[in-house]
């Protein structure tokens, strides 16, 4: 964890941003996998980690905006816990490590909240995403589970987003560590991309690297020769010479900061002509976006100009036609690039998505564009120095979508459907880097995972 004063200062700042009342931040608890004592891998809530830093079960934080003090609720280990789990640090000691002076037993949380309700004080909470915390808040506040999102505090949501969006140097170091693990995962995947290899073996090896060096993968690994399926979690195939293997995989550092990289590799070690032509467009797109990213520019405008780079490359290949700007305005590029350019990244791989994408990615000035493809852009607003983002353009050939658009004549003025027929087994290419926005541009986080065709071919063929 970071130094105690980091957490104390974060809570102090939060109290300045929220006008009055009490803020309750429940930590996560273990969730049963197939019976109560056999649980999923524990993952602490990210906002709890940000303000209270403690990475274990059974805690809740209370921040008193009016009174100014912070309280941590939890229970000290019983002798039975010690028998099963070994000696435990006291709650008081743990609290001190994150700058909290006052602790109480977990059951006292109910008394504090009940008394605040009697006094008519405002109680701020974030929209809960786990059933266990929904039930807890329902019991604490007397608000039905189905209404909790509606009654969650927009003021708190906005305050938390404003703080978590700007990463400090300690957080950037954690993200760089996660990127270092991600780098190793991707190089390993490239080296394993030989004909006959089982996708599952490669995915499992990458997961092993993430677990051996950090807290594990930051999301379920996407690894497939069907890269045109955007989030394909099936790893059942065997690699075939001449196919492309798309790997979207990242790691969490021990403190749970994420990385999120994608690379696309030719099985067997060499891009064919058709693959290389499309790959060069995706590479031009990611490099174009990186060259545009800087504080003060909206990510929506970068998404759209990157779509123009893709459309113009596809026009040169004869797959698109007509005026490139008009094509993008009409959303024709989305046949090939049907998702957003990227998202914020931090303690969550899609950072703060639980707090509401509309607040994380947009503001009054920049509103979402409701058009197929661009509607999936998670981050559109003006960038600020300290934002950590992904830059992840892709080009996909999705047979079902091609057939649908062709039969409905969607954007027929901009698409050469005839020529597209020979691309229907191509698959897809996505490239994804992680970066931090600066006043003058952006800085890649971690060493760049091999990305040029030459670098990739060299990595596949030189297994060290
Ligand atoms: N790994 C999911 C994404 O790139 O957003
Ligand atoms: Mn990704
Ligand atoms: Mn991503």
Write the layout of secondary structure elements.
Layout: H1 4-17, E1 22-26, E2 32-35, E3 38-39, H2 46-52, E4 60-64, E5 70-73, H3 79-85, H4 91-97, E6 102-104, H5 108-118, E7 123-124, H6 131-141, H7 148-151, H8 154-164, H9 169-191, H10 199-213, E8 216-217, E9 222-224, E10 244-249, E11 251-252, E12 261-266, H11 273-292, H12 299-316, H13 324-329, H14 357-361, E13 388-391, E14 394-396, H15 399-408, H16 417-420, E15 428-430, E16 433-437, E17 442-444, H17 453-461
The chain binds glycine (GLY) and manganese (II) ion (MN) (2 copies).
Glycine binds at residues 219, 248, 260, 343, 349, 392, 432.
How would you portray this structure in words?
This protein is α+β, with helices and mostly antiparallel strands. The chain has two domains: 4-164, Creatine Amidinohydrolase, Chain A, domain 1, CATH 3.40.350; 169-461, Creatine Amidinohydrolase (Alpha-Beta Complex), CATH 3.90.230.10. It has helices at 4-17, 46-52, 79-85, 91-97, 108-118, 131-141, 148-151, 154-164, 169-191, 199-213, 273-292, 299-316, 324-329, 357-361, 399-408, 417-420, 453-461; strands spanning 22-26, 32-35, 38-39, 60-64, 70-73, 102-104, 123-124, 216-217, 222-224, 244-249, 251-252, 261-266, 388-391, 394-396, 428-430, 433-437, 442-444. Helix 9 (169-191) packs antiparallel against helix 10. The longest helix has 23 residues, at 169-191. The chain is globular, with a radius of gyration of 24 Å. The protein binds glycine and manganese (II) ion (2 copies).
